[in-house]
Amino acid sequence: MSLLRQHVRGAARSLFPSCLLSHSPSHVRRTVHTKDVAQNASQTRPTHPRVVFSGIQPTGMPHLGNMLGALMNWVKLQREAAPEDKLIFSIVGWHALTLPQDPKELSAARREILAVLLACGIDPKRSIVFHQDENRHHAELAWILNCITPMGKLHRMTTWKSRLAASRNARDDSEVDESLLNVGLFTYPVLQAADILAYKTTHVPVGEDQQQHIELCRDLAVTFNKTFKGGKDDPPVFPLPRHVIPSTSCRVLSLKDPSSKMSKSSPDVNSRILLTDSAEQINKKIRRAVTDSITGISYDSDTRPGIANLVDILAACEDAKPQDVAVRYANRSHAEFKMDVAEAVEGLMSGPRREFERLRRDIAYLDSVSKSGAARAMEITEKTIDEVRKRTGLY
Ligand code: AMP
Ligand code: TRP
């Protein structure tokens, strides 16, 4: 029997790894493995009820990194949220359009990603799930925020450079040709801020790579509140949202180049595991993952990044600590270890994959979910936009 089977036998294997446990009210919190990067906690403290908002672009099938780094964190948050908390998850089609997209593919991806969210466990009765592009208030607020965003601040951000570089297969950001930069990509973070602020969000669960965007969003909330104070007794319009980051063990690296993140844009399809990959494909990709020639298993991301990545993945799937996993496998061969990693990943993906295959064909259901999600979303943002119009003089 594999070491993995022995380990999980008799214990319910959690679909929701410990690294996905996130900020939850203390009465429901079990383990907190997340980093909270709110710079000034006292300014952001009143977080009951919480408003949690996150978004994902409809740009291709999610991979293991998206699942462990984002989607399952959302499901975890949903499971642990207090009844009065609002949970809002958006498929951000307008953000996707900031890079060239094939219209037919975008349309299919838009529906597929909704099926993925539901397949992973987002419950449309508990959470609001909707398409950003079906709520025009995001665009309206983005315009107003554009008018208080300094060009210099956006220009200093590195994300547009990285996105442009990735879309052109440039080796690094310095190779980016700025003449190819469109205004939409440049102001991408402002639209993201509008997504977040339109709901008066208090918590934003996204990866570390989004830190600059959340900081800009917080800056814009402060600037707006200062610039448009309203009357003497009016409260500030926007709370300062907190960035909630899953612990670093959920940063999944490329299976072919463990110095970079697993990503949708890498030209090598064997560098990532997709939600739609079969058990056989998962096994093959993990068997061929780049490791090293050192005997046995240990956990050191500096000297053994390939092995450490697989240890992280297995630990995340098992809800265990990577160090404990490494000790358990210390004397096992790479082949045995990889077999167990593949088995654990298949265990994590098979349920959502089956559910995705069922849901993706149920177009009427998907359309009804997105329609009611957009209506619920607009009910909230209508109120914010009304306040914003009043504060800015647009009434
Ligand atoms: P993207 O695929 O860049 O649109 O990212 C969607 C979400 O998945 C974001 O919250 C990212 O932080 C997260 N994410 C993307 N790639 C990874 C990865 N390799 N490991 C962990 N999280 C990831
Ligand atoms: N920029 C985010 C990403 O690439 C997606 C996103 C758009 C988002 N709007 C958002 C995430 C609002 C959180 C909140 O992953």
CATH architecture of the largest domain: 3-Layer(aba) Sandwich
Arithmetic mean of pLDDT: 87
What's the level 1 CATH class of the largest domain?
A: Alpha Beta
The amount of beta strand, in percent, is: 5-15%
Order of helices and strands: HEHEHEHHEHHHHHEHEHHHHH
Structure summary, number of beta strands: 6
So, the CATH homologous superfamily of the largest domain?
HUPs
CATH fold assignment of the largest domain: Rossmann fold
Instruction: Report the C-alpha radius of gyration, rounded.
Output: 21 Å
**How many structural domains?**
2
- Please tell me what the overall shape is: globular
Bound molecules: adenosine monophosphate, tryptophan
Span between termini? 70 Å
Largest sheet: 3 strands, mixed
The order of strands across the largest sheet is 1-6-5
Helix content: 40-55%
Low-pLDDT segments: 8-46
In short:
The protein has helices at 3-8, 41-44, 64-80, 93-96, 103-120, 137-146, 151-156, 159-167, 183-186, 188-197, 211-227, 279-287, 305-318, 322-328, 334-359, 363-392, and strands at 35-36, 51-56, 86-91, 128-131, 203-205, 242-245. By secondary structure, the chain is mainly alpha-helical.
How is the secondary structure organized here?
Elements: H1 3-8, E1 35-36, H2 41-44, E2 51-56, H3 64-80, E3 86-91, H4 93-96, H5 103-120, E4 128-131, H6 137-146, H7 151-156, H8 159-167, H9 183-186, H10 188-197, E5 203-205, H11 211-227, E6 242-245, H12 279-287, H13 305-318, H14 322-328, H15 334-359, H16 363-392
Parallel strand pairs: 2-3, 3-4, 5-6
Antiparallel strand pairs: 1-6
The structure holds adenosine monophosphate (AMP) and tryptophan.
